[in-house]
Amino acid sequence: MGLRREPTARQVRLATELRRLREAAGLKAREAAALLGVSSTQINQIEYGHSGVSEKRLRSLAAHYACMDDAFIDALVAMATDRTRGWWEEYRGHLPSAFLDLAELEHHATYRADVECLHIPGLLQTEDYARAVFAYRVPALPDRDLELRVHHRMQRKVIIERPEPVPYETVIHEAALRIRTGDRAAARAQLTHMLELSEADHVSVRVIPFDRDGFAGAWNTMTLTGGAVPKLDSAQRDGPEGTALVDSEAQLGALRTLFRKLEAESLDPERSRDFISRLAKEL
């Protein structure tokens, strides 16, 4: 098997979990290599995502590491043996790898949860809204690159529109609903589109209004994505250097708690739909 030049975020996550299991077992890479009868270089390549690992070797490593969590091991095996070439592969070489990693992550998700305070979440955006967001970039994107980003964002919606959709929750601040990213007509169409999507049983849209007392969490933009087991959940946070993936158990626990706290600050889904409907009628 050849070495990967650029492993995907999913492949890197598998590698990270295998390294964590080895370290929790108190073994050095060379000791794990000896257990499998391979070189320590091969173990390093596996643990950095530059090389795949067979189901037989993965289960052997898990046994040597004394991992007794069968559901977790099965989930890792599924990651290791997955050969999915999803729709996002058509963008490889045309968009930054982070776009492809996000689509792959969502494809395998068991749930999605977003918090947005200044923008409509990507999964709920209309084409005109997404185009306005990408067009505001400085320096400006060439037309072809801009359209590729818009089309990619529209295709990501498949996870909430397919026959077996992913459960989706989002908490949106009123500011994001009121900022006119496009013109008046585009803003009205965006709010109407959100209302239509929110009628689905698997979609929950909740609004935090401006007049909510004691709300100090406007900086808490985040995305939570469910893995096959909770240990494989992940999160994304936006920062000065771009989007960062979070996968440590402690950080994930804190972000889950924070999401529920923000959810508690918001209106329930029915009152949120009424709120969005009123805003749309004002436009």
Automatic annotation (TrEMBL):
Residues 18-71 form the HTH cro/C1-type domain. It comes from the Bacteria. Pfam families: DUF5753, HTH_31. Gene3D superfamilies: lambda repressor-like DNA-binding domains. SMART domains: HTH_XRE. InterPro entries: Cro/C1-type_HTH, DUF5753, Lambda_DNA-bd_dom_sf. One of its GO terms (molecular function) is DNA binding. SUPFAM superfamilies: lambda repressor-like DNA-binding domains. This is Transcriptional regulator. The lineage of its organism: Bacteria, Bacillati, Actinomycetota, Actinomycetes, Kitasatosporales.
